[in-house]
Fold this sequence. Notes:
By secondary structure, the protein is of the alpha/beta class.
Amino acid sequence: MFIDTHAHLNYPDILSKLDEVLSRAQDAGVEKIIVPATTYQTSLQIAELVQKHDMLYGAVGIHPTELKDFDESHLRGIEELARQSKIVAIGEIGLDYYWEPYDKELQQRILKEQFRIAKQECLPVIIHNRNSTADLMALVKEEYDEGKLKGQFHSFSAGIEEARQCTEMGFCISFTGNITYKPNDSTLLAYEIVKITGIDNLLLETDTPYLPPVPFRGKQNEPSFIKHTAEKIAELKRISVEELGKITTLNARRLYGI
Ligand code: NI
C-alpha cells in the first residue's frame, strides 16, 4: 500500500537490525523501499544490499555534503553501478549551502555530471536541496533537456513558485515526517504546497533515520512510521489514507520503474 521512496537503511545502527525493521515495515503496509546512497562507497554497499532483499531498491550517487574524499573515478563507478537491475535512480544528489565549509562550484559540477549520468542511463534523480534553491532550480532548468531529466525533489524545502515549476517539468515532490510537526512557518508552507500540487506529482518518504513523524519524535525514524506522514497528507488532500497510498504507490512505480 505504501512505497517509502527515501530511507537510509545502510546506516550502521539500522543495518544491525534490518530484518526487524523490514518486517515492521511490511506489517505497516510498506511494500517497497528505495535506499539512496550518499557516497561512492555507500553506492557499492547499497548495490549489494538490494540484491539480498526483495523489497529493497537502490539509488547510487554522491551527496553534496560528502565531497571531501571525491575522486573523478567515483563518477565512473557510479555510472557502472547505475546499470544494475535493482538500481532505480541516481541519488541522493543536489546542493547544500548549509554545512560549512562548502564549495559551490565543486558541488554544481558534480551535480551536473550526475544529471548527465542519469539522462544517459535513462534513470530518474533524487534531489537534495538545503539553502540552495536558486542555484539548484537554475541547474535543473539548464539540464532539463525537454524532460530527459526527471525525478524527485525529496524533503521539499523550496517555495510555492518552485513547487509549481518542478511539477510543470514533471518532477515529483515529497515531504518527510516534519509535515506532522506543530504548525510553524515551514509546516504551513508545506501544507500550502501539498494542497496546490497535483496528486500525481506526490510521493511518500520517511528519510529514515531522520525526521520521525509525530508521535515518534526523538526516536530513530523507520519506514513503518510512514503512515503518520501519509495521514497528514491525505487530510490535506481531503482523501482517505488508502487512496493516497494507492496513488503515491502508482506514482513511485511509474517514476522508478518498480
Ligand atoms: Ni536523505
